[in-house]
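User: Is it possible to get a 3D structure for a protein together with its bound compound? The compound here is 5-O-phosphono-beta-D-ribofuranosylamine. I've pasted both below.
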Amino acid sequence: MTAPRLKVAVLISGRGSNLKALIEACADPGYPAQIMLVISNAADAGGLVFAKDAGIPTAIVEHKHFPSRDAFDVAMQTHLDQAGAELICLAGFMRILSDGFVRHWEGRMINIHPSLLPAFKGTCVHERAIAAGVRISGCTVHYVVPELDSGPAIAQAAVPVNPDDTPDTLAARVLKEEHRLYPEALKLVAEGKVRLQDGRAQFAPF
Ligand code: GRF
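Assistant: Yes, that's possible. Here is the predicted structure of the complex:
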């Protein structure tokens, strides 16, 4: 008997190329996770088309329609519960979640960030990496904790920063690694080979 696949919800705000990479990974019946739902907080997010093409249910939860962050998070929680989501993958989700929501999902929510955390948290990552003169950058999949981009790393990939890089060329090199790394990291989580414990990502054997 094969183990049940982990039920995942992916949250996006835009282009959705990482969502696409996760959808492609989940298309393999042997992959240990399946995407039950894609939520976007922007009705015009380009990535929604990848979900629709794959026949994955989508929900639009636009924060501007809610009086508070908490009310927005309650609406998202309702969709997640209805879909039976067991894990959330943030994939370019450009909205800060309430502490209560993050705590509820602690250990069950992961994100991808386009730098080698803890370097370059936040936005304009590639501009700042180039301005700082670093020779190596990359991407990180990490558990989400209330403090932005500060949760423990599950997996990282490094790329060189070339002398003639622009933010766009560096972003493209990092993005290619993101598309490889996120499905790999999700696989580790879905197989139970990593978990959040005592504020760290602990790897099997536990
Ligand atoms: C990626 O670079 C990801 O690391 C960051 O936002 C970007 C989203 O890109 N969190 P996409 O929507 O997955 O194409």
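The longest strand covers residues 33-40. The chain has one domain: 6-194.
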